[in-house]
Design a protein that fits this description.
alpha+beta; eight-stranded antiparallel β-sheet; 13 strands
């Protein structure tokens, strides 16, 4: 379009120039009147011919419109191309999802259709086989009754003690009591809830090997003389090291004794009411509403600290 408009301008300019040349040429030959006349005619023709500036200004809008139409066509083509790409991508994505779903369906079918061996007994949902259930029941039958084991009985240095331990029933033998912070036990009166402790010593068991402490608590609800109160707790701790340590016999409910392992304690009593380390590798406290038992020790040597008392 621009090339045609340029040819049109060129042809207009050529006509104007030709008219001027003829006018000048004629005047040069001595025909002044004719030359003047022809010159006027040429100028009139030239004035009627559009110059390049006029053509450019008047053609701007048309050129813009033509250019705009071309741009619109290009944009339309780009939009169509983008739409085709999106449709293609969506189709590919749908094919992939369909393929994945087919794979999952195949896997599920494989699991469902997997044959069960003839000797495999069915299991209940989240449960165990009949054989495993039977083994578990047998273990439970052999296992003592948890916290019910804490019946207030224990063996200590050949004696069977039962809480509350009446001092009259306790054969001290070679054991002696030394009350702490009490000058004369016969004159000591305890308020309700007050507790007094006493060291228990025996020459057969050096203090460097074992430490035993008796507890006397006033749980009567009223004031009472110390000598009238029973022993309500006992604390026994192995402090000696090595194989030659001399220790009194101790047997707790369930057969626990010196050296019992952490696993044996857990198996016997289950989870403790309170547990921690407290300068030991393990330390468990069990309660049943009447008695409290604390069992602590080290991983390599087992149980070495025992507390058994009334709550």
């Amino acid at each position: 379009m621009k090339r045609k408009r340029t040819e049109w301008v060129t042809r207009g300019m050529s006509a104007a120039l030709l008219a001027l040349i003829l006018a000048v040429g004629t005047a040069g030959c001595g025909k002044k009147d004719d030359a003047a006349k022809e010159s006027e005619q040429a100028q009139e023709a030239a004035s009627q011919t559009l110059n390049p500036e006029q053509i450019t200004e008047e053609g701007k809008e048309e050129i813009k419109e033509e250019a705009g139409e071309e741009e619109k066509e290009e944009v339309k083509e780009e939009v169509k191309e983008e739409a085709r790409e999106e449709v293609k991508e969506e189709a590919e994505k749908t094919e992939e999802e369909t393929a994945d779903a087919s794979d999952e369906t195949g896997k599920d079918s494989a699991v469902i259709e997997k044959p069960r061996p003839s000797d495999e007994s069915p299991k209940e949902e989240g449960g165990e086989s009949e054989e495993e259930d039977k083994d578990k029941e047998e273990k439970e039958e052999k296992k003592p009754g948890g916290l019910a084991l804490m019946d207030g009985k224990m063996k200590f240095d050949g004696q069977e003690l039962e809480f509350p331990i009446e001092l009259g029933n306790l054969n001290l033998g070679n054991w002696s009591l030394s009350y702490e912070n009490v000058e004369d036990p016969s004159e000591k009166t305890l308020s309700p809830g007050e507790v007094v402790t006493a060291s228990m010593k025996n020459e057969a068991y050096p203090d460097t090997d074992v430490k035993v402490t008796a507890e006397f608590g006033n749980y009567t609800g009223e004031s009472a003389a110390l000598t009238d109160l029973p022993m309500t707790g006992i604390y026994i701790e192995k402090v000696g090291k090595g194989e030659d340590v001399k220790l009194p016999e101790v047997e707790l409910p369930g057969g626990l004794t010196w050296g019992s392992t952490e696993e044996e304690i857990r198996e016997l009593f289950g989870e403790a009411s309170l547990s921690g380390t407290f300068q030991k590798d393990f330390d468990f406290m069990y309660e049943n509403g009447e008695y409290m038992m604390e069992l602590a020790g080290m991983k390599d040597t087992g149980l070495d600290y025992i507390v058994y008392c009334e709550e």
